[in-house]
Structure formats: structure tokens, C-alpha cells
């Protein structure tokens, strides 16, 4: 088969995969793995490259963190923190705002979906106690989780992918300060602060007073210690020279295994360990594995290079135009397409785009800003949103598009605009 024919087939399958992911999000893992299998069968991706193109570091980080989060939830620590927040809130409006900010802080260090799974049940419990609808609070928790995931290296899969050596080559502290300039952390946090007045307007009528005398007892402090230790070790590893390529993954999986063994040794509860292993979202891991193979395939046949050349031709001589295209185009696309496959594709594209006199991180950060926050425009734009609406459905609350849009649209546009201006000012 000719190279041009392979290129055409690869492009058609790639587009069909995206159409499938948008139309049938529950089957997205099968679409990605199916296309990857066809790529390997046809030689679009040579089989000899199979193991080398998979980002094992990302997969191990996600799996290990999910196990730690399971034990963290089981320890009742999130409920303890919720009690503290409830005692400090004046009314329902401030409970919602504080829970949103709390989920954002957690999400800066833990995967977005894991954050929603950890914080949303606490929010639902609070709403039941206050006898109010959980929809506004849970949706606010989800969109805040999506926003803050881009604040640090370990907060979101997209951040982990961006920090890879072939792209921005960032360590943990580079998200705070890089090349003598403030990093993504400040762009995200300023956007988060800008959403507080938005939430005050949205929930201005929720002025019912609240109070709480409850004091949840934490059953086990080991998971909390392990999560803190994970963050500290990831920070330390980013500064040490000559570390293994997959060191972040080794840290997360290693701590997860230690936590599992400690739990078995102290409690002798095999069922607890099995539940922790079952809490790993294997569907997301397999989706990512498939995407790594598909993207490697389109790169191998030259599609990525062609896309980069087109982008460079359209906006390469006009940095502000190109930057704006990346940010707002990413917002629009990520409203309907999961940001993981989109960012994985665009990172490869942008790595081939050169901006005369501009730091390449300008486009990388613009991509991260638009893609991670853009998912908040719709309930299907991010895995955390899908997870949140699923939890609400189990509570008998169906979330309509307009219910989500009421919170997601103003939240997204405000946060993206602030980040968009900040990144251009400091990185152009």
C-alpha cells in the first residue's frame, strides 16, 4: 500500500474516532483501541514502536493516585474537612463557594475525576442536611475541579502531558515560576479568583443561614499522609538530576502499593484491598493507551507535520492571532471533545510550530488554558462533568443542558479570559 494511501486511511480513521467519541462518549475507549489496532494491522504504526510510544509515566501516575484517593475517601478525611468548611460558612451561598474552592484546591494535586468522586459525596451530604437541591453545588464543584487541574504538574493528565521532555519540559516548580516568569499556576489561580464574584451573582438568592456541630472522626490518617508525601516526592524528583524517565509513575504506584500493604497488615481486610484496586478507572487508562498509539500513528505517516505547517502558514507571522486561535479554538473544541485526546494531538502539532521571537511556551500554555477550561462549557466536555452529572442522576436529579450552562458558561468565559490575558502579558 502506498504512503499516500496509508496517510489517507489514517486521517479518515482518526476523524471517525473523534466522531465516535463525540457521538458515543461511553464507547470512547473502544473507538480509540479499535483504531489503534487497525493502525498496527495496516502498518500505519509499526509494531516495533508499540511499547516505546506509550507514556507509561502518565498511566502509572493516574492508577497510583486513584488507589490513594480510594483510601483517602474511606478514611473520612474529606468529611472532616467538609465539617470545618460548613462551620465557617455564613449561608448556603458561601457553602457552595467554599466547597467549589475546596474542590479546586484538591484538584490542583489530584486527578479531576478523582477529586469529584471525593468531594461531590460530601457536597451531596451537606445539601441533604440543609434540604436544598444538590445540583448547583455539585456542578460548581465539577467546573472548579476542571479549572484548577491545570495549576500544577500533578493536577491533570493534560498538565502531565505538557510537562514531557519533548514539549515544555517542565518540573513541578516550573508551573509556579519558569524562565524568570510566573507560570501556569498564577494564570489558573487568578482565573479561579475571578469566578468568585460570578458565583456570588449566580447564587445571590441562596441566603439561608447554616450551622454545624458535627465532628467527623477520621478513621485512618495514613492515606492523608501518603497523599502529602506523594506531592512532596514529586516536587523533589523534579529537581534531582538523572532520575529515571518514569520516576513520577514509580512514586505514585509505589506509595499506592505501600498503602495497600499497610492496610492489609493492620486490618487484614482483603476486601478493602480489592475495592481499592477496583476503584482504578481502567477505562480511562485504556482510552489513554489507545490514544497514545493513534497519535503516534498519525505522526508516523506525516499528518501531524502537515497540520503544523498549516497552522504556521495561517498565523505563524502573526503571533497574537495564532495565540488567540489556539486559546479560543481549544475552548470551542473542548466543549464537545474530551480534552485528553485533543491536547495529546495538539501538543504534537504545536511542537512543530515556530514563533519568531516568541517563547514556544506561549502556545503550550494557551493550549492548556483553553483546553482544560473549555470543557466547562458543556456537561459532556470533561470527564469530571460527566462524573458529576452521573452522581446527581443517582440522587434522582436530572441535569438539563441549561442547568449546566447557567454555571458553566459564565464560569468558563471569565476564567479563560483572565488566563488568556495573563499568559499573553507574561509570555509573549
Chain-wise SSE layout:
Elements: H1 3-23, H2 28-42, H3 56-74, H4 77-88, H5 92-107, H6 112-130, H7 135-148, H8 157-162, E1 177-178, E2 181-182, H9 184-202, H10 222-239, H11 247-267, H12 270-278, H13 282-300, H14 303-315, H15 319-334, H16 339-350, H17 361-374, H18 383-394, H19 401-427
Antiparallel strand pairs: 1-2
Helix pairs in contact: 1-2, 2-13, 3-10, 3-11, 4-6, 5-6, 5-7, 5-9, 6-7, 6-18, 7-18, 7-19, 9-19, 10-11, 11-12, 13-16, 14-15, 14-16, 15-17, 16-17, 17-19
Distance between the first and last residues' Cα? 45 Å
Computed structural class: mainly alpha
- Quickly count the domains: 1
Main sheet record: 2 strands, antiparallel
Counted by DSSP, the helix tally is 19
Q: How many β-strand stretches?
A: 2
Overall form? globular
Order of helices and strands: HHHHHHHHEEHHHHHHHHHHH
The level of helicity is: over 70%
Estimate what percentage of residues fall within beta strands: under 5%
User: What's the arrangement of strands in the largest beta sheet?
Assistant: 1-2
Low-confidence stretches: none
- Overall mean confidence score, pLDDT: 82
Radius of gyration: 22 Å
Name its key features.
71% helix, mainly alpha, two-stranded antiparallel ribbon, 2 strands, 428 residues
Explain the overall architecture.
- With 428 residues, this protein is an all-alpha fold.
- The chain has helices at residues 3-23, 28-42, 56-74, 77-88, 92-107, 112-130, 135-148, 157-162, 184-202, 222-239, 247-267, 270-278, 282-300, 303-315, 319-334, 339-350, 361-374, 383-394, 401-427; strands at 177-178, 181-182.
- It has one domain (3-427).
- The protein contains 19 helices and 2 strands.
- A two-stranded antiparallel ribbon has the order 1-2.
- Strand 1 (177-178) and strand 2 form a beta hairpin.
- Helix 7 (135-148) runs antiparallel to helix 18 (383-394).
- The longest helix has 27 residues, at 401-427.
- The radius of gyration is 22 Å and the shape is globular.
Amino acid at each position: 500500500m502506498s504512503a499516500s494511501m496509508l496517510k489517507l486511511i489514517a486521517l479518515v480513521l482518526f476523524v471517525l474516532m473523534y466522531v465516535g467519541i463525540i457521538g458515543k462518549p461511553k464507547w470512547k475507549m473502544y473507538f480509540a483501541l479499535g483504531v489503534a489496532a487497525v493502525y498496527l494491522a495496516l502498518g500505519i504504526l509499526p509494531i516495533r514502536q508499540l511499547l516505546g510510544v506509550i507514556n507509561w509515566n502518565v498511566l502509572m501516575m493516574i492508577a497510583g493516585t486513584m488507589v490513594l484517593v480510594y483510601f483517602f475517601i474511606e478514611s473520612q478525611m474529606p468529611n472532616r474537612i467538609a465539617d470545618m468548611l460548613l462551620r465557617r460558612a455564613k449561608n448556603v451561598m458561601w457553602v457552595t463557594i467554599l466547597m467549589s474552592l475546596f474542590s479546586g484546591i484538591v484538584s490542583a494535586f489530584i486527578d479531576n475525576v478523582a477529586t469529584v468522586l471525593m468531594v461531590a459525596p460530601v457536597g451531596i451530604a451537606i445539601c441533604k442536611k440543609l434540604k436544598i437541591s444538590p445540583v448547583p453545588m455539585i456542578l460548581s464543584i465539577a467546573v472548579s475541579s476542571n479549572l484548577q487541574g491545570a495549576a500544577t504538574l500533578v493536577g491533570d493528565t493534560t498538565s502531565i502531558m505538557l510537562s514531557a521532555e519533548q514539549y515544555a519540559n517542565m518540573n513541578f516548580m516550573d508551573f509556579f515560576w519558569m524562565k524568570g516568569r510566573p507560570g501556569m499556576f498564577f494564570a489558573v489561580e487568578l482565573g479561579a479568583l475571578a469566578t468568585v464574584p460570578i458565583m456570588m451573582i449566580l447564587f445571590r438568592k441562596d441566603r439561608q443561614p447554616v450551622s454545624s456541630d458535627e465532628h467527623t472522626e477520621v478513621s485512618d490518617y495514613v492515606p492523608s499522609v501518603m497523599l502529602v508525601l506523594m506531592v512532596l516526592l514529586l516536587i523533589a524528583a523534579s529537581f534531582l538530576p538523572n532520575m529515571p524517565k518514569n520516576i513520577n509513575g514509580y512514586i505514585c504506584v509505589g506509595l499506592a502499593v505501600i498503602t495497600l500493604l499497610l492496610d492489609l497488615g493492620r486490618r487484614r481486610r482483603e476486601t478493602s484491598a480489592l475495592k481499592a484496586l477496583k476503584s482504578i478507572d481502567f477505562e480511562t487508562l485504556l482510552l489513554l493507551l489507545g490514544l497514545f498509539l493513534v497519535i503516534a500513528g498519525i505522526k508516523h505517516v506525516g499528518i501531524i507535520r502537515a497540520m503544523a505547517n498549516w497552522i504556521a502558514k495561517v498565523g505563524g507571522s502573526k503571533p497574537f492571532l495564532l495565540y488567540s486561535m489556539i486559546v479560543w479554538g481549544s475552548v470551542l473544541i473542548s466543549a464537545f471533545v474530551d480534552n485528553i485526546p485533543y491536547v495529546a494531538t495538539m501538543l504534537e502539532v504545536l511542537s512543530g510550530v515556530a514563533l519568531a521571537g516568541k517563547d514556544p511556551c506561549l502556545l503550550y500554555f494557551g493550549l492548556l488554558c483553553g483546553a482544560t477550561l473549555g470543557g466547562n462549557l458543556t456537561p459532556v466536555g470533561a470527564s469530571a462533568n460527566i462524573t458529576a452529572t452521573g452522581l446527581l442522576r443517582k440522587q434522582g436529579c436530572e441535569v438539563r443542558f441549561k442547568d449546566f450552562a447557567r454555571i458553566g458558561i459564565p464560569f468558563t468565559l471569565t476564567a479563560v479570559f483572565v488566563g488568556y490575558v495573563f499568559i499573553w502579558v507574561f509570555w509573549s
